[in-house]
Specification:
The complex is a heterodimer of chains A (about 180) and B (about 120). Chain A is mainly alpha-helical and about 180 residues long. Chain A has 6 helices and no strands. Chain A has a single domain (about 5-175), classed as Arp2/3 complex 21 kDa subunit ARPC3 (Orthogonal Bundle), CATH 1.10.1760. Chain A has helices at about 5-30, 45-55, 55-75, 80-100, 105-130, 135-165. The two termini of chain A are about 25 Å apart. Chain B has about 120 residues and is mainly beta. In chain B, the strands form 2 sheets. In chain B, strands 2-1-7-6 form a 4-stranded antiparallel β-sheet, with no helix packed on it. In chain B, strands 3-4-5 form a 3-stranded antiparallel β-sheet. In chain B, a hairpin with a 2-residue loop joins strand 1 (about 35-40) and strand 2 (about 40-45). The longest helix of chain B has 12 residues, at about 10-20. Chain B is rod-shaped and about 80 Å long. The termini of chain B are far apart. The chains are: A mainly alpha (about 180), B mainly beta (about 120). The interface of A and B includes residues 105, 132, 163 and 175 of A.
Chain lengths: ~180, ~120
């Protein structure tokens, strides 16, 4: 039988997947000069899942939100979807590794790690699927530098959510 | 999880900047060279990066080939039609200036060669 705690974790994961998928989908409609230049707000869901629920759930949320977002935009299985999926997973693992390694880094450092690894994974998978890896290397600065402010923004937003959760009277969900 | 920024947060930023600087490392492996062929035999190769001019011996007289700011062209030929001179300047890997009667060709090789579809 599932415990009350298990149910709560599952509900939280479902909520975060939904939030991530909605953010990911809405972000697609923001006009931007270059296709990869988006803040990646959906990563907030992964960061929150990692902090509030746990590392395994963070990866599940990352996969779930891309899957759901791909379903919403009708992109399931397309190169863009494969790029999103693989970079979301890479970013999730990178953040978990940095977090679990006990490096004295705050949520900002972890989020920047996630954003930068997401950008690098994205450009390399795109390099393998769409253009050549040598072009991917040349694109690195254009992709990695905007990831730094994106990571800071995601950390700021996640921090705002976490501090509010901690203030909540029913705050037993956060460690 | 610390919520306030810590000094080590700069580490991923520095790593990101280092990654962004990666393409600036010069890569000689992909450097373009001008290769001279004579009767299908590879005779000489000259790096594209340096501005030079050199003389190539052909079956119908001498060619003067010039490399200038990433472009290769034939400046002088001792034949009536001078088709090779008229071929103008080439700069992309895979392109060539050919003299059929003289049985010579200069080809730009290496660099980022495009695939068969785009060439």
């Amino acid at each position: 039988m599932r415990s009350r705690d298990d149910n709560r974790r599952m509900a939280l994961c479902a909520l975060l997947v939904a939030v991530g998928a909605v953010l990911w989908t809405l972000e697609e409609f923001i006009p931007r000069p270059l296709p990869w230049l988006k803040p990646g707000l959906a990563n907030v869901a992964t960061v929150l899942a990692m902090v509030i629920v746990g590392p395994v759930e963070a990866i599940l949320v990352a996969v779930g939100r891309v899957l759901l977002g791909g379903l919403l935009l009708g992109r399931l299985g397309s190169p863009a979807f494969i790029i999103s999926m693989s970079s979301a997973i890479v970013a999730g693992f990178a953040m978990i590794i940095v977090w679990k390694s006990k490096v004295p880094m705050s949520i900002y450092g972890i989020s920047i790690t996630g954003a930068v690894s997401h950008a690098v994974a994205q450009v390399f998978v795109a390099g393998l699927l769409i253009f050549s890896p040598s072009i991917a290397i040349k694109l690195l600065p254009l992709v990695v530098i905007p990831a730094i402010p994106a990571g800071i923004l995601i950390a700021f937003l996640s921090r705002a959510v976490i501090t509010r959760i901690k203030k909540h009277p029913n705050k037993d969900i956060s460690q | 999880m610390r919520l306030k920024p810590a000094p080590l947060d700069l580490l991923p930023i520095l790593i990101a900047i280092a990654i962004a600087l990666l393409p600036l490392i010069p890569n000689d492996k992909h450097a373009e060279t001008v290769v001279v062929y004579r009767s299908h035999e590879r005779r000489a190769s000259v790096p594209m990066s340096r501005d030079t001019s050199f003389v190539v011996d052909t079956d119908i007289g001498e060619w003067t080939v010039r490399i200038e700011s990433g472009e290769v062209f034939v400046t002088e030929a001792h034949c009536p039609k001078r088709i090779c001179v008229g071929m103008g300047r080439i700069s992309r890997p895979g392109s060539a200036i050919v003299c059929a009667p003289g049985k010579v060709a200069v080809v730009i090789e290496g660099g980022e060669e495009l695939d068969a579809v785009t060439r």
